[in-house]
Amino acid sequence: MKEQQPIQDEMETGVKEELENADTDNVTDDGTPEEDVQEQAAGDQDQALEAETEKLKAEIEEHKQRLLRTQADYDNFRRRTVKEKEELGKYASAKLITELLPVIDNFERALGSVSDVPEAASYAKGVEMIFRQLEGILKAEGLTPMEAVGTPFNPEYHQAIMQVESDEYEEGDVVEEVQKGYMLKDKVLRPAMVKVKG
Protein backbone atom coordinates (compact mmCIF):
# COMPACT_ATOMS: atom_id res chain seq x y z
CA MET A 1 0.00 0.00 0.00
CA LYS A 2 2.76 2.32 0.90
CA GLU A 3 4.26 1.88 -2.54
CA GLN A 4 0.99 2.86 -4.19
CA GLN A 5 0.85 6.21 -2.40
CA PRO A 6 4.12 7.57 -3.89
CA ILE A 7 3.02 6.46 -7.36
CA GLN A 8 -0.32 8.16 -6.90
CA ASP A 9 1.39 11.31 -5.58
CA GLU A 10 3.74 11.23 -8.50
CA MET A 11 0.83 10.91 -10.95
CA GLU A 12 -1.05 13.77 -9.34
CA THR A 13 2.06 15.93 -9.47
CA GLY A 14 2.60 15.05 -13.15
CA VAL A 15 -1.05 15.89 -14.01
CA LYS A 16 -0.78 19.18 -12.09
CA GLU A 17 2.42 20.11 -13.94
CA GLU A 18 0.82 19.24 -17.25
CA LEU A 19 -2.20 21.39 -16.45
CA GLU A 20 0.04 24.25 -15.35
CA ASN A 21 2.15 23.92 -18.48
CA ALA A 22 -0.97 23.81 -20.63
CA ASP A 23 -2.28 27.01 -19.03
CA THR A 24 1.04 28.82 -19.28
CA ASP A 25 1.53 27.78 -22.92
CA ASN A 26 -1.65 29.69 -23.95
CA VAL A 27 -0.98 32.77 -21.78
CA THR A 28 1.33 35.72 -22.52
CA ASP A 29 3.71 37.30 -20.04
CA ASP A 30 1.06 39.80 -18.87
CA GLY A 31 -1.45 37.06 -18.26
CA THR A 32 -3.63 37.60 -21.35
CA PRO A 33 -4.74 34.43 -23.14
CA GLU A 34 -2.81 33.90 -26.37
CA GLU A 35 -5.99 33.54 -28.47
CA ASP A 36 -7.11 37.06 -27.42
CA VAL A 37 -3.70 38.45 -28.34
CA GLN A 38 -3.87 36.79 -31.77
CA GLU A 39 -7.41 38.11 -32.35
CA GLN A 40 -6.35 41.59 -31.31
CA ALA A 41 -3.31 41.42 -33.60
CA ALA A 42 -5.51 40.25 -36.47
CA GLY A 43 -7.98 43.08 -35.73
CA ASP A 44 -5.15 45.65 -35.67
CA GLN A 45 -3.85 44.25 -38.94
CA ASP A 46 -7.34 44.47 -40.50
CA GLN A 47 -7.67 48.10 -39.37
CA ALA A 48 -4.24 48.94 -40.77
CA LEU A 49 -5.15 47.29 -44.10
CA GLU A 50 -8.50 49.10 -44.15
CA ALA A 51 -6.80 52.45 -43.47
CA GLU A 52 -4.22 51.77 -46.19
CA THR A 53 -7.01 50.78 -48.61
CA GLU A 54 -8.93 54.00 -47.88
CA LYS A 55 -5.75 56.04 -48.36
CA LEU A 56 -5.08 54.33 -51.72
CA LYS A 57 -8.71 54.84 -52.81
CA ALA A 58 -8.40 58.56 -51.96
CA GLU A 59 -5.16 58.79 -53.98
CA ILE A 60 -6.79 56.99 -56.92
CA GLU A 61 -9.75 59.41 -56.81
CA GLU A 62 -7.41 62.41 -56.65
CA HIS A 63 -5.42 61.14 -59.65
CA LYS A 64 -8.66 60.43 -61.52
CA GLN A 65 -9.92 63.99 -60.88
CA ARG A 66 -6.55 65.44 -61.92
CA LEU A 67 -6.64 63.37 -65.11
CA LEU A 68 -10.18 64.55 -65.89
CA ARG A 69 -9.17 68.20 -65.32
CA THR A 70 -6.10 67.78 -67.51
CA GLN A 71 -8.23 66.17 -70.24
CA ALA A 72 -10.77 69.02 -70.03
CA ASP A 73 -7.97 71.63 -70.20
CA TYR A 74 -6.52 69.90 -73.23
CA ASP A 75 -9.92 69.73 -74.96
CA ASN A 76 -10.48 73.44 -74.28
CA PHE A 77 -7.00 74.27 -75.55
CA ARG A 78 -7.58 72.21 -78.72
CA ARG A 79 -10.95 73.88 -79.37
CA ARG A 80 -9.48 77.33 -78.74
CA THR A 81 -6.56 76.61 -81.08
CA VAL A 82 -8.89 75.39 -83.84
CA LYS A 83 -11.08 78.49 -83.39
CA GLU A 84 -8.03 80.79 -83.49
CA LYS A 85 -6.81 79.09 -86.68
CA GLU A 86 -10.23 79.53 -88.27
CA GLU A 87 -10.32 83.19 -87.21
CA LEU A 88 -6.81 83.71 -88.53
CA GLY A 89 -7.74 82.14 -91.87
CA LYS A 90 -11.03 84.02 -92.00
CA TYR A 91 -9.49 87.44 -91.32
CA ALA A 92 -5.96 86.88 -92.69
CA SER A 93 -6.50 89.50 -95.37
CA ALA A 94 -7.87 92.12 -92.92
CA LYS A 95 -4.59 94.06 -92.62
CA LEU A 96 -4.06 94.26 -96.38
CA ILE A 97 -7.68 95.23 -97.05
CA THR A 98 -7.53 97.91 -94.32
CA GLU A 99 -4.53 99.42 -96.09
CA LEU A 100 -6.41 99.32 -99.42
CA LEU A 101 -9.49 101.19 -98.09
CA PRO A 102 -7.95 104.67 -98.67
CA VAL A 103 -7.17 103.57 -102.25
CA ILE A 104 -10.86 102.68 -102.72
CA ASP A 105 -11.86 106.07 -101.24
CA ASN A 106 -9.53 107.84 -103.69
CA PHE A 107 -10.90 105.85 -106.63
CA GLU A 108 -14.45 106.89 -105.68
CA ARG A 109 -13.42 110.55 -105.34
CA ALA A 110 -11.61 110.45 -108.70
CA LEU A 111 -14.59 108.88 -110.45
CA GLY A 112 -16.93 111.42 -108.86
CA SER A 113 -14.90 114.40 -110.10
CA VAL A 114 -14.05 113.08 -113.59
CA SER A 115 -17.70 112.75 -114.62
CA ASP A 116 -17.93 116.56 -114.71
CA VAL A 117 -15.25 116.80 -117.44
CA PRO A 118 -16.57 115.53 -120.84
CA GLU A 119 -13.07 115.21 -122.37
CA ALA A 120 -12.05 112.68 -119.72
CA ALA A 121 -14.98 110.30 -120.31
CA SER A 122 -12.90 107.52 -121.90
CA TYR A 123 -10.23 107.93 -119.23
CA ALA A 124 -12.94 107.77 -116.53
CA LYS A 125 -14.39 104.62 -118.10
CA GLY A 126 -10.97 102.87 -117.89
CA VAL A 127 -10.46 103.96 -114.26
CA GLU A 128 -13.97 102.76 -113.41
CA MET A 129 -13.23 99.33 -114.94
CA ILE A 130 -10.06 99.03 -112.82
CA PHE A 131 -12.01 100.15 -109.75
CA ARG A 132 -14.81 97.60 -110.37
CA GLN A 133 -12.19 94.87 -110.80
CA LEU A 134 -10.56 95.82 -107.47
CA GLU A 135 -14.01 95.95 -105.82
CA GLY A 136 -14.81 92.47 -107.17
CA ILE A 137 -11.59 91.01 -105.74
CA LEU A 138 -12.22 92.60 -102.34
CA LYS A 139 -15.85 91.46 -102.37
CA ALA A 140 -14.67 87.89 -103.02
CA GLU A 141 -12.52 88.26 -99.87
CA GLY A 142 -15.66 89.20 -97.90
CA LEU A 143 -15.48 93.01 -97.95
CA THR A 144 -18.86 94.74 -98.10
CA PRO A 145 -19.70 98.43 -97.74
CA MET A 146 -22.13 99.46 -94.99
CA GLU A 147 -25.38 101.18 -95.77
CA ALA A 148 -25.45 103.94 -93.16
CA VAL A 149 -27.71 106.77 -94.40
CA GLY A 150 -31.25 106.51 -93.02
CA THR A 151 -30.39 103.86 -90.41
CA PRO A 152 -30.41 104.53 -86.65
CA PHE A 153 -27.01 105.53 -85.25
CA ASN A 154 -25.16 102.50 -83.85
CA PRO A 155 -21.78 103.14 -82.18
CA GLU A 156 -20.60 99.65 -83.21
CA TYR A 157 -20.97 100.53 -86.90
CA HIS A 158 -20.88 104.32 -87.00
CA GLN A 159 -18.55 107.06 -85.87
CA ALA A 160 -20.47 110.31 -85.40
CA ILE A 161 -18.52 113.45 -86.26
CA MET A 162 -21.35 115.95 -85.84
CA GLN A 163 -25.07 116.45 -85.25
CA VAL A 164 -27.17 118.19 -87.87
CA GLU A 165 -30.78 119.29 -88.31
CA SER A 166 -32.90 117.50 -90.90
CA ASP A 167 -36.62 117.28 -91.70
CA GLU A 168 -36.12 114.16 -93.79
CA TYR A 169 -34.87 111.83 -91.00
CA GLU A 170 -35.90 111.02 -87.45
CA GLU A 171 -33.81 111.93 -84.43
CA GLY A 172 -30.81 109.62 -83.96
CA ASP A 173 -30.77 108.58 -87.65
CA VAL A 174 -27.71 108.87 -89.85
CA VAL A 175 -28.25 111.83 -92.17
CA GLU A 176 -25.04 111.82 -94.20
CA GLU A 177 -22.07 109.53 -94.73
CA VAL A 178 -18.75 111.40 -94.74
CA GLN A 179 -16.59 108.30 -95.11
CA LYS A 180 -17.89 104.88 -96.11
CA GLY A 181 -17.74 102.08 -93.55
CA TYR A 182 -16.83 98.50 -94.41
CA MET A 183 -17.47 95.03 -93.00
CA LEU A 184 -15.10 92.12 -93.52
CA LYS A 185 -17.38 89.08 -93.38
CA ASP A 186 -19.15 89.55 -90.02
CA LYS A 187 -16.64 91.96 -88.48
CA VAL A 188 -16.50 95.76 -88.67
CA LEU A 189 -13.32 96.63 -90.54
CA ARG A 190 -13.87 100.38 -90.54
CA PRO A 191 -16.87 102.17 -89.00
CA ALA A 192 -18.67 104.66 -91.19
CA MET A 193 -17.94 108.32 -90.42
CA VAL A 194 -21.38 109.94 -90.28
CA LYS A 195 -23.47 112.98 -89.43
CA VAL A 196 -26.43 112.27 -87.17
CA LYS A 197 -29.72 114.16 -86.74
CA GLY A 198 -29.62 115.83 -83.31
Name the features:
198 residues; alpha+beta; Nucleotide Exchange Factor Grpe, Chain A, domain 2; 3 domains; 3-stranded mixed sheet; 61% helix; rod-shaped
Characterize the biggest β-sheet.
3 strands, antiparallel
| Shape by Cα distribution | rod-shaped
The radius of gyration computed from the alpha-carbon positions, rounded to a whole number of angstroms, is 49 Å
CATH homologous superfamily title of the largest domain: Head domain of nucleotide exchange factor GrpE
What would you call the structural class?
alpha+beta
Mean pLDDT: 82
Characterization of the model:
InterPro entries: GrpE (IPR000740), GrpE_CC (IPR013805), GrpE_head (IPR009012). This is Protein GrpE. This protein has three domains: 39 residues; 51 residues; 54 residues, Nucleotide Exchange Factor Grpe, Chain A, domain 2, CATH 2.30.22. It has four helices and six strands, in the order ααααββββββ. It is α+β, with helices and mostly antiparallel strands. Helix 3 runs antiparallel to helix 4. The protein has a three-stranded antiparallel β-sheet with strand order 1-4-5. A three-stranded mixed β-sheet has the order 2-6-3, with no helix packed on it. The mean pLDDT is 82. A hairpin with a 2-residue loop joins strand 4 and strand 5.
